[in-house]
Amino acid sequence: MNITAVQVSGFITRSMGFTNTAIQQASHQAIALRLNANAAVIYNYRIDGFQDSFYSQSDRHFVCNSVISGTIKIIFGDSQVVTQYCLIILRHPMDNQKNTVTAHGKETQHEGTGIMGSGDEPHLGLIKNIFGRHKKVSSVKEVNA
């Protein structure tokens, strides 16, 4: 199992990819990328995991022209994240599980955080999926323009 964690302000990357190779299990995360980096920019990237693939933990992140794949909560966290022109691939979850493209974890109403997608292309497949859900009490729902 591999989790790549980035905690450097101003992190910029392009044309790379990270995969969490953990076997899908009933209640275990398989995060491929965890960002805790202010003003991070990810361009032409690939993030492959199972449950909770992309953990946008805190700060501000911009993800453009990238591929993100996984199950359960594909993009989640309590940050300001914008995805633009990304291909989001939802894998088949285990029995009795549902996929959610985004899950925002805002703790209080005073936080200026949220997840926004613009021009993304979700590949939902033939299974039941949810586009966005609240992870915490004060979470905001995704706006897809």
Automatic annotation (TrEMBL):
Pfam family, one: Pectinesterase
Domain Pectinesterase catalytic: 5-116
GO BP annotation list: cell wall modification
SUPFAM superfamilies: Pectin lyase-like
MF annotations from Gene Ontology: pectinesterase activity
Keywords linked to the UniProt accession: Aspartyl esterase, Hydrolase
Family matches, as InterPro entries: Pectin_lyas_fold, Pectin_lyase_fold/virulence, Pectinesterase_cat
Name of the protein described by the UniProt record: Pectinesterase catalytic domain-containing protein
